[in-house]
UniProtKB/TrEMBL annotation:
UniProt name for this protein: Class I SAM-dependent methyltransferase
Listed Pro residues bias regions: 420-430
Organism encoding this protein: Paractinoplanes deccanensis
Domain of life: Bacteria
Entries under InterPro entries matching the protein: SAM-dependent_MTases_sf
Region span, Disordered: 414-436
Length: 506
């Protein structure tokens, strides 16, 4: 389309680059839809790449870089174009335009299959319309949020709604699945991809902690309906991780089976190594790729699959820590008003890992372990937990502590630390609307309590004013009577006589 540019993020990131690196070398590859330049360059370095784009300005820009481009839409591509690999990690939603036929998801899949040679591989991403990223999104997927959403179908689209139906749909089209993974936390640039078997049969608590950590990095400072970390961790722990993932990534092939298929670990994730370096943006933060897999003894281990120059990630090689996030355990204990558990967790945390934040520590029995050793030490981690407790609107055993400094002092005392809290700014209001509502309810309770106290003081003031008025009336009445005047005169005479006697005796 002339003068049209895509206004949504393009598919990319370290994990997609890692998947592309496992595609057959020397193959003819069709990249369908908008993809990140780094991903296209990585593919062009090992294969012959053709890009299918509907935006004419982006097609001209890409062609100027020496990449073969088909500028148009998917229905216009003829079957004379056949490829060994088709990469559609942006999904199938941006392959048509208003200038031609509007294919739905199933029709687009059939069109891409026709472009595969026998034995060809399809690398496809399918966004989940019921994923956590949709459940916390304040906007509606059935209204046009940008210029490219002229068909905002949302959940009314024809794409499958869970991994099982996706596998069945691909099989019905004659595509055999080689690998399928659930992607978190966003479909365009996931930082965690795990197979359904890993999410169901793997260490649920550890994988839930990893999912919560990946989601926290993606939604930092973004407005949401509710805290996505809690939803993501609860989904994985409750066995609904594949069903509530942001997207599903699938590698499938057309018969006959190719000689080389994708061989990937059950779990892939990225390490935010650039978060410690000033001047590096979010795109550079996802350079390192970590693989998680079960060992021979059944224990899960992690291994660095792709390193970033200048960063030592050797600490990430080894066993995956067992246990549940300390932050979740502390929040649950506070909600239950279980003060002994809160004190035990805070004391163990302060003595074992005083420089690690609660969302980067896992607890297994009485053992405290850092989840991501690449994260640098943090200062005053207990204050950060107090900010989470108040900013999230969580109930806790100290309702009188309504500010961060007071609550931090209480938590320091429970942890056996000095109660001198270093100065710091109070956290900004939470970006989650549900937490906003909880804070509003808490403020209403405080206002109701203040109003009740004010009414009691008003009643006490009215009662005492009444008593004082009565006393003044009695005083005025007594002071005007004859008896009062005689008594007052006699009292004056007696006082003068006493004074004279004192002078005579002296």
């Amino acid at each position: 389309m002339p003068s049209f540019t895509e206004d949504r993020p393009r598919a990319g990131g370290a994990l997609f680059g890692h998947l592309a690196a496992h595609l057959p070398a020397g193959a003819e590859v069709l990249v369908a839809g908008p993809h990140d330049d780094a991903l296209i360059d990585a593919l062009a370095g090992r294969a012959t790449v053709t890009c299918l784009l509907r935006s004419q300005p982006e097609a001209i820009e890409l062609e100027a870089r020496g990449v073969r481009v088909l500028c148009g839409t998917l229905p216009k591509v003829t079957e004379a174009e056949r490829y060994d690999v088709v990469v559609a990690l942006d999904g199938l939603g941006r392959l048509c335009s208003v200038e031609g036929p509007q294919l739905d998801w199933a029709e687009s899949l059939q069109a891409l299959k026709r472009l595969l040679r026998p034995g060809g591989t399809l690398l496809l991403a399918v966004e989940n319309e019921l994923g956590v990223h949709k459940l916390v999104d304040p906007s509606s997927t059935t209204s046009a949020q940008d210029d490219s959403a002229w068909r905002p179908l949302g959940e009314f689209d024809t794409k499958p709604g869970n991994p099982g139906r996706l596998a069945a749909r691909l099989s019905a089209e004659g595509l055999a699945i080689d690998w399928l993974g659930a992607a978190w936390p966003s479909p365009e640039a996931p930082t965690l991809i795990a197979t359904p078997n890993a999410l169901h049969d793997g260490p649920a608590d550890a994988l839930a902690a990893v999912t919560a950590s990946a989601t926290a990095r993606a939604y930092a400072g973004r407005p949401v309906l509710s805290d996505p970390r809690r939803l993501a961790a609860a989904a994985v722990r409750g066995g609904l991780g594949p069903e509530l993932a942001a997207a599903w990534i699938v590698a499938a092939h057309r018969a006959p089976r190719p000689a080389a298929v994708l061989s990937l670990p059950p779990v892939l994730l990225t390490a935010p190594v650039a978060s410690r370096d000033a001047g590096e943006g979010p795109a550079a933060a996802d350079g390192a790729v970590i693989g998680l897999a079960p060992g021979r003894d059944g224990a899960w281990t992690r291994r660095v699959l792709h390193e970033v120059p200048g960063h030592d990630l050797s600490a990430l090689d080894g066993p995956l820590p067992r246990g549940r996030l300390l932050e979740e355990l502390l929040l649950a204990a506070c909600l239950r008003d279980d003060l002994p558990i809160v004190r035990r967790l805070l004391t163990g945390w302060a003595s074992a890992l005083p420089d690690a934040t609660a969302d980067n520590v896992v607890v297994h029995r009485d053992t405290y372990t850092v989840l991501d050793p690449s994260v640098p030490p943090q200062a005053d981690v207990i204050r950060r937990f107090a900010e989470t407790l108040l900013g999230g609107g969580y109930a806790h055993p100290w309702p009188a502590a309504t500010d961060v400094r007071t609550l931090t002092t209480i938590l320091h005392g429970a942890a056996g630390l000095p109660d001198d809290v270093p100065p710091g700014e109070d956290p900004p209001p939470p970006d989650a609307r549900r937490e906003h509502e909880e804070q509003i309810r808490a403020l209403r309770r405080q206002l109701a309590d203040a109003a009740s106290r004010a009414q009691w003081y008003e009643r006490e003031l009215d009662r005492r004013d009444s008593e004082l008025r009565k006393a003044r009336m009695q005083i005025a009445a007594f002071s005007g009577s004859v008896g009062f005047r005689v008594a007052k005169l006699g009292y004056g005479v007696a006082r003068k006589a006493r004074n004279r006697l004192r002078k005579g005796l002296s």
